[in-house]
Design brief:
- This protein has helices spanning 2-15, 18-34, 38-41, 43-50, 65-76, 79-92, 95-120, 134-141, 147-160, 164-179, 188-206, 209-238, 243-256, 269-285, 292-296, 304-333, 335-338, 344-354, 359-390, 397-411, 415-427, 429-455, and strands at 123-124, 130-131.
- With 457 residues, it is mainly α.
- It has a two-stranded antiparallel ribbon with strand order 1-2.
- Strand 1 (123-124) and strand 2 (130-131) form a beta hairpin.
- Helix 5 (65-76) crosses helix 12, helix 16 packs across helix 18 and helix 19 (359-390) packs antiparallel against helix 20.
- The longest helix has 32 residues, at 359-390.
């Protein structure tokens, strides 16, 4: 069993290793250049689309641009933004944040291309309903002969969308921040109670389908980002004299790597720091993995580029805003240098330091809302993969498996299962990025046509 555990751990490490990062970052950089830095040139227009300026209720699709973005964000804004950033800083210091920003800018380009393709090449499921996502733009864009690649993506999605890791981390946060400090005995019973509560909340939302998921996400996501933003602003005000120093350190340490304590890469610590920051950024915003295009593919629009522009805002909000807030909170309070805590405990120390008494509980509320909202969208991604594989009439079976995995995630510490899910999640990126790079020239043609239709009309 130990040997099997090691094999699965090695598989997860390889899946999230250098080949994937080269594909995500190298591919994203190529797409950024190919689009002539479209994320920067069309940012204002993307905001107008998101605000509903171009909405047409008669367009094909199920949900609005705003609902599509918040559904996608509800999965990406989670433990990676809180625990992942803390891990990056504890290993790499302030400089790791700079490389997370680089990952986000490149990720904006990737999200634009993958989500534009999700609308360009929507297909019909077995019930005849219009659907979007990597499995559909593979078969509709590359042709039916490429269906094995779409099947590979969907099989990986069935495993990769399971919420075991997220639930496991949320349970630990509840135990460490709320239960243990207040003298509550933590064990199987308390973990099971957490799991049951999560199952009830999740079931109410996910069994209502995409419309209920998107409506819930459209209310939760803006509220949770605003709460987190206000919380960190309070921390920055309390430590305002430290803010300029650490903001400049993010840039200077990105190239000096004086704090980096991890493995070296390409023979130098700066390369290792780049790898660390980019990996955490890619894990956080999920650009190129293929999850977001499944949400954006359901948007009500007849203009693929429009939905791509809305999707492009995801990494900006997820990494440039939320991850930066976490980083600044950890840096300005100094906890990253004065405590051995790691992950979510490090972020909790920062909140507790700046807001004694209630800071940790405020963070726990943010963590709970971030994590619970991600449970909604991942169930949709998994059921969509099952629908593609065995038919739309059987997709609801995934929800039952999903609910069981929530209980497992809360009550057990199955490192083997967590590594397996993590590895399959990473594997989703290979068919997504391969197909996106193949179809990218068609997206560029669509951009030119869209500009003529919209701005020269």
């Amino acid at each position: 069993m130990e040997q099997l555990n090691q094999y699965i751990s090695d598989f997860a490490s390889f899946a999230w290793g250098l080949p994937l990062l080269i594909l995500l970052i190298g591919g994203g950089l190529y797409l950024l250049i190919l689009s002539r830095f479209l994320p920067f040139r069309f940012f204002d227009h993307a905001i107008n689309v998101l605000r509903g300026k171009y909405n047409n209720p008669d367009d094909p699709g199920e949900i609005t641009h705003f609902q599509a973005l918040t559904t996608a964000l509800s999965s990406t804004i989670g433990m990676g933004n809180i625990a992942g950033v803390a891990v990056a800083i504890s290993i790499g210091g302030p400089g790791a944040v700079f490389w997370m920003w680089v990952s986000a800018v490149i990720g904006m380009s990737t999200k634009f291309f993958t989500s534009t393709l999700a609308i360009m090449y929507r297909g019909r499921d077995s019930a005849g309903d219009l659907q979007g996502g990597p499995m559909y733009f593979i078969t509709e864009g590359l042709g039916k002969s490429w269906k094995p690649l779409a099947v590979f993506f969907s099989v990986c999605g069935l495993v990769g969308a399971l919420p075991v890791f997220n639930v496991n981390q949320l349970t630990q946060a509840i135990n460490d921040i709320l239960l243990r400090p207040n003298g509550v005995e933590v064990g199987f019973t308390s973990n099971l109670a957490v799991g049951i509560v999560l199952v009830i909340i999740t079931s109410i939302v996910i069994l209502g389908g995409l419309n209920r998921i998107s409506k819930t996400a459209s209310k939760l996501v803006p509220a949770m980002v605003l709460l987190y933003f206000v919380s960190v602003v309070i921390i920055l005000i309390v430590n305002f004299e430290e803010v300029p120093k650490y903001f400049s350190l993010i840039f200077t340490d990105a190239f000096s790597a004086s704090f980096y304590k991890g493995d070296t890469f390409l023979g130098g610590v700066i390369g290792g720091l780049m790898l660390l920051g980019i990996r955490r950024g890619a894990f956080s915003n999920e650009a190129g993995i293929g999850t977001a295009p499944m949400a954006h593919g359901a948007a009500k629009t007849s203009e693929p580029v429009r939905e791509g522009l809305v999707a492009m805002l995801g990494p900006a909000i997820d990494t440039l805003v939320v991850c930066t807030l976490t980083a600044l909170a950890i840096l300005v309070t100094g906890v990253w240098q004065t405590t051995d805590a790691n992950g979510v405990s490090l972020t909790a120390s920062a909140f507790g330091n700046a807001m004694p008494g209630f800071g940790k509980y405020l963070l726990l509320i943010c963590i709970a809302v971030f994590s619970i909202s991600s449970l909604f969208s991942y169930s949709y991604y998994g059921s969509k993969c099952l629908s593609f594989l065995i038919g739309a009439d059987k997709k609801h079976y995934y929800n039952y498996m999903y609910i069981v995995s929530i209980i497992l995630g809360a009550t057990t510490s199955l490192s083997m299962m967590i590594n397996l899910i993590d590895g399959f999640f990473a594997l989703m990126a290979f068919p997504t990025m391969f197909t996106t790079l193949m179809l990218a020239p068609r997206v560029v043609k669509e951009i030119k046509a869209y500009k003529l239709r919209t701005f020269n009309a």
